[in-house]
Design goal:
alpha/beta, GH, globular, Glyco_hydro_1, Beta-glucosidase, 13 helices, 13% strand, 466 residues, TIM Barrel
């Protein structure tokens, strides 16, 4: 079994989790910049502006803004074919609604993309990855239709500026996180489902319009949606457990249904009718959704859930989703996430059977506490085992199931702050970054054992996984 010849091997990050430099060169505040690190067993706080004495991990993160050349050179040493990253919208339009873009921000990403291309690394760029310009909150953020126009102004700016440098784009990172963490996804802090579904409609419409714009500006552009890879098994063969699992998947997949099929599914429209939820549809909106379907499906995959009738679903908590069940057949990470390599193959089948579009895994990795030995080495065999086992299952999806998979970008190739907790001790990278949970350290980069292993994997196009 082999990976395709043009398979895109690489890694993935988000600007707010790695760049730092949160107010440099004209950047404005984003929703991520007022999120503190989580206290023990508590979620991250959202503060009213910047409060003295609070620690905000995004403000310095791991200083990728100043060290991107060093980091990308390390990616090239591993043999990366692609780097999935995001543009910080508030670097380009500091307040979100500015008339003129910030040239310093545009120039920064010119340099990032030029560095990637210098090494033959293809950028995959997420337009909105868990950060909305804080200045847009005066409109109500994505609950307000005006924000669509501001987003499209930003899209047009970067599509034109980077026309010859970027051809793969993702609109909204893990758009279905709107159902679990609306602040992260859209800068909306509400449990009201009418508010969330209004917000979702505006993002879905914005995505559809952005897809069309990208194609008009450059026919070579390929635009994908990005699904937070929630997938579930029923707790038993009890028909009620099966139905509960189906309902769970509907809650997660309806965003992808719209972005891939171009219309709201019947099950969601009936749910809205029963709950009295009214979408803010204007003339022409439904046609825009039809015309703005995506070219491919990208997704994250970390874990699977077990769902059944005896535990109601809870879209809260540090992981965003709780189902009340633990899979007795699986081990868990240090953060309690079920480790299920076979679930990656299963999810590939779910997504391809449903949409028949090319897939790309743009996030997959193991968060773990790493130990630096006295000689500076980091022996992370657990990370190697995790990624290897998932790649074996991905290879099965390609060669046994016949699914067109474009690539695999491991999350994250160097240690970055955790989105869910703001921690640094929850490390994912092949490259160690000397920063602790309080933001202290030298920021020195250091290669882990997994760095050399992934280099061998890429050099062999996935043939050598030992």
């Amino acid at each position: 079994m082999t990976f395709p010849k043009e398979f895109l091997w690489g890694g993935a990050t988000a600007a707010n989790q790695c760049e730092g430099a949160y107010l440099e060169d004209g950047k404005g505040l984003s929703t991520a910049d007022i999120m503190t690190a989580a206290a023990e067993n508590s979620p991250r706080k959202i503060t009213d502006g910047i409060i003295d004495g609070e620690y905000y991990p995004s403000h310095r993160a791991v200083d990728h803004y100043h060290r991107f050349k060093e980091d990308i050179a390390l990616f090239a040493e591993m043999g990366f074919k692609t780097y999935r990253m995001s543009i910080a919208w508030s670097r380009i339009f500091p307040n979100g609604d500015d008339e003129v873009p910030n040239e310093a921000g545009l120039k920064h990403y010119d340099e990032v993309f030029d560095t990637c291309l210098q090494y033959g690394i293809e950028p995959i760029v997420t337009l909105s990855h868990f950060e909305t310009p804080l200045g847009l909150l005066k409109y109500g953020s994505w609950e307000n239709r005006k924000v669509i126009d501001y987003f499209l102004r930003y899209c047009e700016t970067v599509f034109k500026r980077y026309k010859d440098k970027v051809k793969y784009w993702l609109t909204f990172n893990e758009i279905n996180v709107l159902s679990t963490k609306p602040w992260m996804a859209a800068g909306v802090h509400s449990d009201d489902e009418q508010v969330r579904m209004t917000t979702a409609f505006h993002q879905l419409l914005a995505s559809a319009k952005a897809v069309q714009m990208a194609h008009e500006i450059d026919q070579a552009n390929q635009v994908g949606m990005m699904y937070n890879g929630h997938v579930a098994y029923p707790a038993s063969s009890d028909p009620q457990d099966i139905q509960q699992t189906n309902d769970f998947m509907h809650q997660m997949l309806f965003y992808a249904d719209i972005q891939c099929r171009g219309h709201y599914p019947a099950y969601k429209l009936k749910e809205f009718e029963l709950k009295g939820i009214v979408l803010p549809v204007q003339d022409g909106d439904l046609e825009e959704l039809k015309k703005g379907t995506v070219d491919f499906v990208s997704f994250s995959y970390y874990l699977t859930h077990v769902v059944g009738k005896d535990s109601p679903l809870s879209f809260t908590g540090l992981n965003g989703v709780k189902t009340g069940y633990k899979n007795p057949h699986l081990q868990s990470s240090q953060w309690g996430w079920a480790i299920d390599p076979a679930g990656l193959r299963y999810l590939c089948n779910v997504l391809y059977d449903r949409y028949e579009l090319p897939l790309i895994v743009v996030e997959n990795g193991l968060g773990a506490v790493d130990k630096v030995e006295e000689d500076g080495s980091i022996h992370d065999s657990y990370r190697i085992d995790y990624v290897r086992d998932h790649l074996i299952e991905l290879k099965k999806a390609i060669d046994i199931d016949g699914i067109p998979v474009m690539g695999y970008t491991m999350w994250g190739p160097f240690d970055i702050i955790s989105a869910s907790t703001g921690e640094m001790k929850k490390r994912y990278g092949f490259i160690y970054v000397d920063v602790d949970n309080d933001g202290n350290g030298t920021f020195e980069r250091r290669k882990k054992d997994s760095f050399y292993w992934y280099k061998r994997v890429i050099a062999s196009n996935g043939e050598v996984l030992d």
